Here is the input.
Amino acid sequence: MKKLIISSKQKRQLIKESRILTESISLIGKTLINVDIQPEYESAIHFLPQWVKFLNKTNASIIFLYNGGQMGMISESEYAHWLFQLGVKERVLNSSQFYDKGYAYFRYCIDSAINEDEIVSLIKFMIHKNINDSRDLDEEFWDDFVETYPYEDIRDLLEFSDDMINIPDLMDFLKYKNNIVLTGGGIYECLKEVEIALMALDKSYQILNEFTY
Here is the structure.
């Protein structure tokens, strides 16, 4: 019988596919949230074939968060069709949730290099005070905030700024989710905003780094 010879490249591919299967199985009972893995960002995403195999094998509950119509981008039906063309199985798409999440609710602070602990603390304090837009925060609020939390940088940035952060509707959607695993990107942009939203909701989560961009 002729001996089967496997090249190093084939071995690496088999190892990768085995790892994908193992990780898919390990997500039983988890909520897999995919952030902005969509055609507008396709040129930056290096893992699409492996990610599709992963989605088709996993037993996790799957959510696709995306930038859609409110950003002038893809509709839900167009997005589902794109995923189907990539090879995501129809049964996966039919059992998944899609949510047009919006964009840039915390980016002013992120881009200004404000520590994420400060951002999370302010978001929690705003929710506690039932205020959605940081432009509505008055001096009394800021005094109470810095008395509660030792954070002056975020006050200095926002108190007299025309720019702002706001509490997105996404947080109402996420507060009912548990055992969360994240994929997607960008890691310092939309994915980071989702992380901060989860931290403000006191939700634990993990990130699959091989499926981030």
In short: DSSP finds ten helices and five strands in the chain. Residues 122 and 190 are 19 Å apart (CA to CA).
